[in-house]
Task: structure prediction
Amino acid sequence: MGLTIALIIIAIYSTALILIFFYSLAQLNLLVNYLGYKKRNEEAPKFNLLDPKEIPFVTIQLPIYNEEYVMERLLDNIAKIEYPKSKLEIQVLDDSTDDTVIETAKRIEELKKDGLDIQHIRRKNRQGYKAGALKEGLAIAKGEFIAIFDADFLPESDWLKKTVPYFKDEEIGVVQTRWGHINRDYSTLTRIQAFALDAHFTLEQVGRNSKGHFINFNGTAGIWRKECILDAGNWEGDTLTEDLDLSYRAQLKNWKFKYLEDVETPAELPVVISAARSQQFRWNKGGAENFRKTVWSVITAKNIPLKTKFHGVMHLLNSSMFLCVFIVALLSIPMLYIKNTYGHLGWIFEVTSFFIISTIILFICYWFTYKSIQGSSFDNFVDYIKLFFTFFSVALGFSLHNTVAVLEGHLGKRSEFVRTPKFNINSIKDTWKGNKYLAKKLSPNMILEFALMIYFLFGMYSAIPLNDYGLFPFHLMLFLGFGFVFFKSLTSKA
Result:
């Protein structure tokens, strides 16, 4: 390997490491915000829902598409919502193309007989996907406030009573609640998804919201002021994460968001890796699309402080960290050989310590979010250590898949909105096998993921002749991560 190529590899590797380090510093700052906010007791103006004059009209929107396994559960759960029937309407925004339409229509008619104001809204096409359905429903919605639930969410009966009162503050455009996980302990895959989402819904959402930085409506389990949606330009379907897009447009218009960590809305996590893949792809590509669409508006906004701009940019770059991680992983083996070929460049390798520091920072940040939900006993800490490194390994294993998504987003390549299949999995006894919505084709990325598994096995072997074991733990996690993703993708078929 020539010196010029070696220097180019070092430059790219170091840049990716430094970007990851900045991301971890942003997370550390959010942790400081989070811990500071936990000690505060804030009083906010609230509607008095005991006074009929103060009870606003609410529309609940249920955007659905081919939800055979969870449709009945969803409608039965929503029917239990405690709110005056004269001030509540429910819109079932049904874009389904299968037989569920008939069963859904029957159940809606039954609920109407019970006095529920519930409408079955069908479109001629799926233009704009979820965003298009929400927009079409909004045009005829009677509510001042619009609550949105995806098909796998099961809000508690008093959910509206806990969220609607905060809209007494006329500057608040959104109230978002924390996601819970009804099948957290179903498998390793569900545990690590819950682990990552818990960090987002504690550390990130509270850490940003407590200091007035931009947060995002999470697509579900939240409620919008109708006026805010319209003022921000309404739903747009030009990105795969329409929720993040509208959130930023609203906050750039000075609308405030209220995040309620203490209000948990249970939902189902994907139990099959193909379902997790489609969800991860949509979220990460959508994040990159929104960076492309919105970052300049954030940077040039006159109405937001510099620190909010920094956190906004880092937030929009969240998914792009997978690209940085994948670059670091891919170049780590050439770097091992460069280190042992060009001794005089040894000082440059101190930059590797950035990755270790970043990992330690994330380990600390995630522990605080983990213990806030799971508890802080010694046994929980031991479980946390195992879960953190399992999560870290599998996240590395997803880095190729998510990097493809991020690159497509940054390059502006359009793709279809692929919904995440739902399973109605509530306990370990339930099975996903036979689910007709599962992807039948194997991901073409699997071949590359298998090749990368072998590549990092070679990386571990390289430590022996080079007598350099510094990157061995990293290569071991990469080997296990890509192995997990590959073999789970191979075997988790209906």
